Amino acid sequence: MNELFESWANEGREWVGNPHAWRVVALPAGSPHLSVLAGEQSRWALWVDADQEAFRRAYRVLKQVAEQGGPQRMLLVHPPGVGRQGLLSNLRHAAASYLGIELLVLAR
Q: Which helix (H) or strand (E) holds 9?
């Protein structure tokens, strides 16, 4: 994940700041630590895979984040080759419409 932040910083994306200052914490769906981390961490990202169950898993995580008072804005990161249409577009729409979460899509 650090390589991704370094790549974005090298591309001039100023919001990244120091790519080594980011602390990435993998948090599984249903984690009992979600509400604690939601209060402590201001920047969140959601990794979305490209398989057939990706939407379902991502939406389930987003729903849990919303239910536990998590952030209302998150980065949406995904593997190369996943286009903005289809999966990502549908996920962004569902998150905004049903959960009040804005997903910012950053593609490499």
A: helix 2-10
- 3 state SS for 57-81: HHHHHHHHHHHCCCCCEEEEECCCC
Output phi, psi for 92, to 5 deg.
Answer: -60, -45
Q: Which token pair is 86?
A: 């289809």
Q: How confident is the model at residue 1 (pLDDT cuts 50, 70, 90)?
A: low
Closest CA to 37 of 51, 47, 23, 48: 23
Q: Is 33 helix (H, G, I), strand (E, B) or coil?
A: coil
Note the pTM of the prediction, 2 decimals.
Answer: 0.75
Contact at 8 Å (CB) between 87 and 52?
Answer: no
Assign residue 69 a region (left: φ > 0; alpha: ψ between -120 and 50; beta: otherwise): left
* Per-residue pLDDT tens over the stretch 21-70: 887 777 776 778 877 887 888 778 888 888 888 889 899 989 988 888 88
Residue pair 34/70 in contact (Cβ under 8 Å)? The answer is: yes
